[in-house]
Automatic annotation (TrEMBL):
UniProt cross-references to Pfam families, sorted A to Z: Response_reg
Entry keywords, A to Z: Phosphoprotein, Two-component regulatory system
Protein name: Response regulator
SMART domains to which the protein is assigned, alphabetical: REC (SM00448)
4-aspartylphosphate found at: D55
PROSITE patterns, alphabetized: RESPONSE_REGULATORY
């Protein structure tokens, strides 16, 4: 990676946020992480992210709320939606054209492969 990819991680489970944050930071990513969906909404308004990793089921804003806001802001990065409820929300996920869905529980290796694929895809689009 020439420059660090900026990643926003939002999940209401502290263990997921801290584990994923440490894992990605150790691999050269610049990570902003929160367990509060309202803080994530603020971050996407003011930050510049290459990748947003968001949980689906959170309060007061769901992952779908975050994705909708990213779309409104013409977010040019990639989105990874993590959920334990993929089968329940598959139609919504397809309607929003979420590029990448990762079902819980997932391994950090699986997540890294998704992120690297997402970044590689974005780089190819820019060329």
């Amino acid at each position: 990676m020439d420059r660090k990819k900026n990643v926003l991680i939002v999940d209401d489970e502290e263990l997921i946020v801290s584990t994923v944050s440490r894992y990605l930071s150790a691999r050269g990513y610049a990570v902003t992480a929160t367990t509060l969906s309202e803080c994530a909404m603020d971050a996407i308004e003011t930050g510049s992210f290459d990748i947003v990793i968001t949980d689906l089921k959170m309060q007061p804003y769901s992952g779908l709320d975050i994705i909708k806001r990213l779309r409104e802001l013409k977010f040019g990065g990639k989105i990874v939606l993590i959920t334990a409820f993929q089968s329940e929300v598959q139609a919504t996920i397809e309607a929003l054209k979420v590029g990448c869905v990762l079902e819980k529980p997932f391994s950090l290796g699986e997540l890294l492969l998704k992120i690297q694929g997402q970044c590689d895809e974005k780089q190819a689009e820019a060329e």
